[in-house]
Structure formats: C-alpha cells, structure tokens
C-alpha cells in the first residue's frame, strides 16, 4: 500500500468515525472484521466495480461495455423482450442489463433525466434531444374469450356494450384509441373497467371477464389455440408504432446493435408488422 502501519490504523479509525460503527474487532495486535466490516467490504467491492465500469464506459463511449439501462413498454416485454435480452447477452456476454418495464410516460421521463440509455415503446412522439427510430407496427383489435358470445360479424359499440369493457387507465394510447373509436362508431355511455397492468388485462380477457382493445401480440398463444378471438371491425385501429428512443448523446455502435436486434426479433415473431 506504500503507507506506514500507523497511517493505515489512522485511516481505519477515521472511516469508523465517519460511519459511526466499528469495522474491526481487535484483540491485542490481532484484528478481524466485525459484522459491520463484512457489510462494508461488500459495498466497497461494488463501488470499485462501478468505478471500473465507469472508466470503461467513458473511455469507449459505449454503454454496451458495462451496464445498459433499457426501458420497455409492457407490450414489448410480454411479446419479445426475453428473446431480445437473450440475443443481446449472446452478442455481449459481459454486458449487464438493467430493465425497467413501465408505461410510455415513465419511460420517456427516464430518458429525459438520463435514468435510461434506451427505451422501446409505442408512439413516443417528438422529443427534444432524443432520437426516435421506428422499428415495427403492433396491430390492435377488440379481443375476447372464445366463450364470449359475440357474433363472428363485425363488432360495434352496441354489441360490445353488453359486456364488461376492460382497458388501461388514462393516460394511455390504448385508452385514447378505444375512446376515439367508440365515439366515431356512434357509441354512447362508454363504461370502462381499468387495470394498470397490460399483462393482467390480457389474462382477464382470456378468462372471459370482459372484452378489450389489446395488441394482438400479447395474446398470440391464446389466439393460436383458439381460446381468444380477435374480432373484426368495420373501422380497424391504426397499429401502434413501436420505436426505439435514446438520447442523441448516447448514440454508439452498441446502441445501434441493440436497435437492430430488437427490430429483427419483432419482425421474426410474425406478430408485429413491418413499417409501411
């Protein structure tokens, strides 16, 4: 350490005074870590690891060397996020990924305050200082359980109003699109039961609790089995545009690689549509 023993002892005492606890249990000239000291070692190892990661991140300018903070909407998380993370790990085996799954408003705030490196979300709009790259389209439809006695003909507000209508709460793109469709089709008295989890909404629809407007990709297995029906509509919904968003200053080969992986996985899944 290139310091004298009394200097080490002094630094240890200063650290103990600053933390307000004893880090060593002393017995004459011998000393061993206390319980608090063992905890301090764990935190110190993490601090040193983060400092090494910081140096690598700033030297390379690439968040794929170290920790990548990725935000994802629930639509992507349910449908394809495991595959995206798997391929990313195979390509960058030393990368650590921190995932945040939330709604678009939370993800955009995370980008704005530099808490996320990249977010994959629906229809983010224009963001100052942020690059938005469209990836694919996520089709939407009214959906319900096969046990729900709706006709195979086109659904309308009259036929749908006989059932419990489920949706994400405001503000959300799904809620806004459903309300706008209902009004355009001449519907009145729309009553909606809400749930803030898209995954849970899918479960409720599949169980026959109600009908709802959902991305078809989140119930793809149920649609294949025939237990969930995607109803036909006279006026189809405009698909959600799924985009990758990241701060302009974060652009790197690594970010570009992640965007490419995400686009490929979505299009290979066949439950997302290519951009028109």
Characteristic key phrases:
276 residues; alpha/beta; Arc Repressor Mutant, subunit A; D-Maltodextrin-Binding Protein, domain 2; 3 domains; 5-stranded mixed sheet; 12 strands; 41% helix
- Tell the overall outline: elongated
Alpha carbon gyration radius? 26 Å
Number of strands: 12
Strand content: 15-25%
- Examine the coordinates and then state which fold CATH places here, giving the name of the CATH topology of the largest domain: D-Maltodextrin-Binding Protein, domain 2
Percent of residues in helical segments? 40-55%
The description of the largest β-sheet is:
5 strands, mixed
Gap from first CA to last CA? 63 Å
**CATH level-4 homologous superfamily of the largest domain:** Periplasmic binding protein-like II
- Any idea how many domains? 3
**What is the highest CATH level, the class of the largest domain?**
Alpha Beta
One letter per element, helices H and strands E, the order comes to HEEHEHHEHEEEHEHEHEHEEH
The CATH architecture of the largest domain can be named as 3-Layer(aba) Sandwich
Structural class: alpha/beta
Q: Determine the number of helices (DSSP H or I, runs of at least 4 residues).
A: 10
Protein name: HTH lysR-type domain-containing protein
Pfam family, one: LysR_substrate
Keywords: DNA-binding, Transcription, Transcription regulation
Organism: Bordetella genomosp. 11
Describe this structure in words.
The protein is α/β, with parallel strands linked by helices. It folds into 3 domains: 1-61, Arc Repressor Mutant, subunit A (Orthogonal Bundle); 66-138 and 240-269, Periplasmic binding protein-like II (D-Maltodextrin-Binding Protein, domain 2), CATH 3.40.190; 140-233, Periplasmic binding protein-like II (D-Maltodextrin-Binding Protein, domain 2, 3-Layer(aba) Sandwich). It has helices spanning 5-19, 35-60, 74-79, 81-91, 104-112, 157-160, 173-184, 198-206, 220-225, 253-268; strands at 24-27, 30-33, 67-72, 96-101, 118-122, 130-138, 140-145, 165-167, 192-194, 211-215, 228-230, 240-247. Strands 4-3-5-12-6 form a 5-stranded mixed sheet, with helices on both faces. Strand 1 and strand 2 form a beta hairpin. Helix 4 crosses helix 10 (253-268).
């Amino acid at each position: 350490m290139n310091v004298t023993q009394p200097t080490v002892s002094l630094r240890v005492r200063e650290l103990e005074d600053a933390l307000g606890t004893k880090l060593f249990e002393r017995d004459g000239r011998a000393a061993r870590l206390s319980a608090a000291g063992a905890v301090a070692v764990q935190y110190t190892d993490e601090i040193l690891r983060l400092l090494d990661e910081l140096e690598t991140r700033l030297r390379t300018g690439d968040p794929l060397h170290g920790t990548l903070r990725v935000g994802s909407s629930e639509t992507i998380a349910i449908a394809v996020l495991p595959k995206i993370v798997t391929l990313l790990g195979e390509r960058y085996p030393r990368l650590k990924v921190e995932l945040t799954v939330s709604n678009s408003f939370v993800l955009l705030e995370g980008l704005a305050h530099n808490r996320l490196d990249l977010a994959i979300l629906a229809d983010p709009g224009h963001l100052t200082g942020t690059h938005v790259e469209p990836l694919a389209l996520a089709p939407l439809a009214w959906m319900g359980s096969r046990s729900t006695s709706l006709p195979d003909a086109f659904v309308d507000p009259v036929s749908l109003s006989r059932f419990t209508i489920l949706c994400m709460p405001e503000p959300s793109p799904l809620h806004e699109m459903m309300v706008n469709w209902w009004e355009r089709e001449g519907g009145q008295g729309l009553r909606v039961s809400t749930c803030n989890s898209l995954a849970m909404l899918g479960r409720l629809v599949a169980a026959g609790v109600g009908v709802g407007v959902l991305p078809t990709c989140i119930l793809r297995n149920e649609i294949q089995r025939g237990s969930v029906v995607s109803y036909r509509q006279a006026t189809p919904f405009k698909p959600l545009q799924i985009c990758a968003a990241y701060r302009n200053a974060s652009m790197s080969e690594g970010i570009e690689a992640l965007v490419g992986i995400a686009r490929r996985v979505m299009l290979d899944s066949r439950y997302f549509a290519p951009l028109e």
